[in-house]
Amino acid sequence: MVDTAVFRLEGVTKRYGDLVALNNATLEVGANEYLSFLGPSGSGKTTLLRVIAGFEAPESGRVHFEGRDITNVPAHERGIGFVFQNFALFPHLTVIQNVGFGLTHGKSGLSAAEVERRAVEMIELVGLSGMEGRGVDQISGGQRQRVALARTLAMKPKLVLLDEPLGALDANLRSRMRNELRAIRERLGVTFLHVTGSETEALAMGDRVVVLDRGTIIQTGTPGEVYDRPASPDVAHFLNRFNLFDGQLAKGSFTGAFGTAPAPRATRADRDVYAVRYDRVKVLPVSAKPEGPALKATFIASEYLGSSIMNFFDAGHGHPIEMEHHLSLGAPDIYEPRQDYLLTWNPEQAIVFGREAV
Amino acid sequence: MTSTVTIQQRQSKVTRWLLIPGIVWMSLFLVVPIAMIVYVSFWTQTTFNISSDPTLASWKQFFTSDTYTGSLWTTIRIWLIVLATTFIVGYPTALFVGLFVKSKTLSTVLLVVCVIPFWTSFLIRVLAWRPMLGKEGAINIVLLHLGIIQQPIEVLLFTELSVIIGMTQIYCVFMVGPIAFMLSRIDRNIIEAARDLGAGFGRIFWKIIFPLSLPGVVVGAIFVSVMVLGEFATSGALSGRKVNLLGNIIVTQVGSLKWAMASVVGVVLTIVMGIVIAGFLRIVDLKREL
Known about the structure:
Chain A: Keywords: ATP-binding, Nucleotide-binding, Transport. Chain A: GO terms for molecular function: ATP binding; ATP hydrolysis activity. The structure holds 2 protein chains of 2 kinds. By secondary structure, chain A is an alpha+beta fold. Chain A is built from 8 helices and 21 strands. The radius of gyration of chain A is 24 Å and the shape is globular. Chain B has helices at 2-40, 57-64, 66-100, 104-115, 122-127, 129-133, 138-145, 160-184, 188-196, 201-229, 233-238, 246-255, 259-283, 286-289; strands at residues 44-45, 50-51. Chain B has a two-stranded antiparallel ribbon. In chain B, a hairpin with a 4-residue loop joins β1 (44-45) and β2.
């Protein structure tokens, strides 16, 4: 898929005083790709986007776009579109004036009629036909999001940067806009870089996911790769899909709160962590004698999620353990609050990180 | 349902109680006095006396006398000039304080600096211009010493110019404040978005920043207009009685107990202010903006 790198970052570093917002970030992005950047707030993902857009200049490193070094090219000459987190629409202009703003006031050199034709075309593309004359305070949040997108796309950028574009929308709208964004991108064949703090969004939308932590890119891969083989305990943590146990990795087995479990394939990391996916955990009565690792925990509560049920356990010392039951696998067992249960899993399915690993 | 009604009733009762002080205050000190002024303007004035016999004499006198109509036009001319100068000086200041200064603390400090002259009394601020602008004032001394001029500039003090300079200095801050406030509320991302879309500084200013600051300009203009139209002290102190605004006429008329004429001028002034404010409010929908 990544045959022609449209866009390349080489060792980009950005500091704000003592704070290193971006540390030696290197990245290649292909044409017609959807890339999502995942990281907690303060991980540098927005800074990365702003450096790419040209709103911030990096201290060191180069930014290449379409075979050109654009590190010192001002934002509006880069041909890169930016969709702001809060949409940043012009509040005193109508929908069509917003969409046509760049064409009218930039260096497009288009006639008024051409500007209008293209603006109408973009409004149609994002599904807002009939709303051209509305003020942007007269439309809903989802519609504003579409206007922001149309305004950026009207400039025909080769690369579109989206800064938490769905963050300001409610949950319902968010999942609808997710599909919409992908559909629009596929129709135009433009590369999208999408920054998000939501692991679901990152995994759902990206052809590839880039995970950032404290200014450093800690993993790049397809959603499947990132999900199945997180590169570090931090990635596993951000994915919000794993129960993490501290402990010690020694001679191919991991010792933690659950006892000792075999850990033949460990990933090298700066600390020893044992990760078990929520949906790999099995619940047994406290009297059971399971073969693998086992951990006594108190059932707290459950949460119904539609297609699955999340059960929350407390393994003592405030260590919460989550267990997900997919309802397609059958009706859920009913657990008694404040009762003890035995949690177990197949050690083959666990992911182990450790200093000792190769 | 019953409970909803009682809550509504209780609320409307509370509303009434909250409204009473305002209504009483406004009636006693605004509605009644204005009605009184309008009424007195039709009274019959003799040299030493005034009677409530209705007459149009004072009104006729106002509109036929060059002194009075001239003062009306002077008031309007000075108002327009001061409005323009406060805007020309105030807008760039507000642009700097409200938009270019990124730190909120610094912009607050700068606004406070603008207000420092108000720590002294109005009259002192006005009179302080005399030693500045006078024939042997600071400006002339400096210019003479630098050899830029050979003769002191006399046009600086006791002319319309000195009134305009004084008023511009005093009222400029009322223009700066509201504009800076509106500018500081502009989302910086909007400006960045406009730049990203390829608009240059001029376009961004005229198409984005200025329209969004317009409510501030209107509020500032209303402040300045109301104060300048009712002015009498600055013109009295800095014009050497050469510039007579409607405010000065009222002061002299009241001083010589010509209540009827003072009332006529008062009514004219109130009408002019009403028209000006109504005109400004047509420019923007302040209800929506604030």
